[in-house]
Please model this.
Amino acid sequence: MDWHTLVVQLFGPSHGITADGDFLHGDATFEGQTVTVVGTTHHAPIGVAMALAQARVVLDTVTHHPGQTIVLLIDTQGQQLRIRDELLGINRAMAHLGCCIDLARRRGHRVIGLVYDQALSGGFITSGLMSDACYALPEAEIRVMRIPAMARVTKISEARLKELSKANPVFAPGVENYVAMGGVRTLWTGDLSACLSEALRSAPSTDERARDGALRGGRRLAASVAQQVLAA
Model:
């Protein structure tokens, strides 16, 4: 789904969201309240400039609009793979974006993430996975690492990883697997405006992804290991 269609379905045709290149930002009215919308489109790579631009919107909201809901619209191919961005410290810029979202949550802002097209790698980790709850459209594509890249990093053969991915969501890309692991809370279908309304009512303010992953069988040990660490 393209971003124009998405925001009309979410907020109606009179929204105030604009695109500066691949950067989405603006305000919209939802159920009588103003919400901040920030995100990306066209499978945008997240470089230093894009990460800082998104962080600026989040910080401006925290500063000037205390408690205002922030909606993250996610469509990214991951971090920008350029020497320039590496030299400028892309790792710090992306970490800064994640910290700004965390700050907003700690200051009482509801932060809802929606993967509406593609979410890969660090571009997803420092946006949607930092929100109170992340949701996705059924046709979205989510993965942190392709199986060939995973094979190079883990030194496990591609054939073995493909076999493991059939039974273990941790090794498999795909939106359903991220639901099973708890990274995506639910899939949004039908009336997207109603889905956002329900998310604002029911999304947790604490991180429940490990618990959800255990209940759904996608991440069986993360929650129990975390509890053991806390109790140690």
